[in-house]
Amino acid sequence: MARQFELLSLGVFLVIVALVLVAYLGQMITRLDEVIALVIALYGVWTVVLAGIRTQRPEKYGRGAYSTLVMGILLIAIGGSWYLYIATANFVLSIVLLLIIIGILAVASALPSIRQK
Q1: Buried (b) or exposed (e) across 49-67, using 16+ Cβ within 10 A?
Q2: Between 113 and 23, whose confidence is greater?
Q3: Could you give the C-alpha distances from 107 to 2, 52, 80, 113, in angstroms and in order?
Q4: Torsion of CA 60, 66, 69, 70, to 10 degrees
Q5: How many CA atoms lie within 13 Å of 40's alpha carbon, on the beta-carbon side?
Q6: Do residues 5 and 63 touch, judged by C-beta distance below 8 A?
Q7: All residues at 6 or more sequence positions from 53 whose CB lies less than 8 Å from its CB, including other chains
Q8: How far apart are CA 32 and CA 30, in angstroms?
Q9: Could you give the number of structural domains in the chain?
């Protein structure tokens, strides 16, 4: 089962790269670092979708759905803040966005352990 998700993720990654490169060639994206930032953010969206798939079919010794979801949100945050920095040239705004998302994830991760006590 893990092999199917790996192959599916590779296929989605290649489709994302192809779509972003088409947008770059079509002059919708003007810089190469925007290409990398968008690929990271869009792959993060796929990772969140993959977490939803994993809740329905959990693997016995594989990464859990919650861990996959957190990784996807972090990829979206990193790619999005990088793209925001490129678009606005405001480093502080991009760091603030990244810190807010990391803080929300830390609170969301700590809540289940607080409720159990």
Answers
A1: ebbeebeeeeeeeeeebee
A2: 23
A3: 30, 21, 21, 11
A4: -120
A5: 19
A6: no
A7: 5
A8: 7
A9: 1
Three-class SS state of 21: helix
* Residue whose tokens read 């979708």: 49
Look up residue 28 and give its DSSP letter. Answer: S
Residue 103 φ then ψ, to 5°: -65, -40
Its domain, for residue 26, covers 2-116
Q: What is the pLDDT of residues 15-60, one digit of tens each?
A: 999 999 999 999 888 888 999 999 999 999 999 898 888 777 767 7
Identify the CA nearest to 81 among candidates 35, 37, 32, 18.
37
